[in-house]
Amino acid sequence: MIRGNYSLANELKARERKQQAKIQKRQKHQNRIEKLTSIDAWILIKRINRLESKQDRDEKDNKYLKDLKNDIEFMKKNGIQAEKIDEILKNEEEKRREREKADKKLWGSKSIYFNPELNPLGKVPSSGLSFQLLKPLPNSTKPLKRSMHIKVDCDPIIEKIKPPLPEGPPPKFYKKIFNTEREKVGDSSGASGTNDNSNSRDVPAQESEQSFHDSYGRDHQSASDDDPYNESSNLAPEEVIALHERDLKKARLH
Q: Where along the chain is composition biased (Polar residues) (predicted)?
């Protein structure tokens, strides 16, 4: 039954508009295929990585990032450089895992954050800081790359006063010393205690070499003075522990 407000002209126009929309959609799809076929997929993925690593993205960047990801999905769905895209994404995932593994690695003395007493493992500081980090600190090793060097201006007060430097070499905050053993009784070679590099350790610089030799000399005195665990002893706590472990080892041997 024909409706009262039926118009054949309007129906023909609606069919024509629908047909034109299908044609335009098909043409748009074909144009997108031709455009993405001529673009290297690696360039698109590189742009995506750069935008994702950008800290202060605005709405324009987010929209562009979304369009790039849609292009990659369109290329994979329509078989445009699909194998190349899969290979690139696989390599990018492997690199990301390697970076995460390197960021968590403990470099020890090679780390720029290494401290013999406070941070012997060279762990990257992340908590307990007096300030808030804008981004995580890099897990860098020594020597730093030239690209990571930061030029800092001199203090204007120091430049104005120009105080003279003290004479002598610059101070050393840490130095190497070695734990030595007592001379064995009845040793015909007459050699003194042997130094073992495996027992070397870092100690604060204020424990001078002279005080260490003085402490070691007192260890060879009479039994009345041979008490390294006395409170008046000048030995460092680490040296007292080393002497205690040595005495326990000798007691087990006898």
A: 189-201
Q: Is the pTM of this model over 0.85?
A: no
Query: Count of CB atoms within 10 A of residue 141's CB?
Result: 18
- Measured over the CA atoms of residue 73, residue 77, residue 78 and residue 84, the dihedral's sign is positive
For the chain, what are the domain ranges? 9-104, 168-253
Token pair of 169, please?
């070499």
Whether 225 shows a pLDDT value over 80: the answer reads: no
Place of tokens 């054949």: 8
Contacts for 197 with CB less than 8 Å, ≥ 6 apart: 178
Token pair of 178, please? 């070695």
Q: What is the DSSP letter of 154?
A: P
Residue-wise pLDDT for 53-89, tens only, equals 887 888 898 999 999 999 988 888 888 888 888 898 8
Angle between helical axes of 8-37 and 59-77 (0-180°, round to 10): 90
Find the distance separating the first CA and the last CA of the chain, reported in whole Å: 118
The amino acid at 192: S
AA letter at 251 = A
